[in-house]
Design goal:
The chain is mostly helical. The protein contains 3 helices and no strands. It is elongated and about 35 Å long.
Length: 64
Amino acid sequence: MFCSASILSAGAGKLVIERRAELDGNCYNVLSPAVDTIADKDPLAATLLLWAMMAYLGRLGSGL
């Protein structure tokens, strides 16, 4: 699973986009601040992080 504070380093948006399939939406304590950090520079990457968190909640709620 891709759940690391390294996404806050330089090139974070590119890393998020390249490894979006590995994002673990359960890591909201890392992903939420990452969204705040990269939202202005890379809105697509920020959206993918938000999507990962929402998808996790959807799976959790549906029992999958």
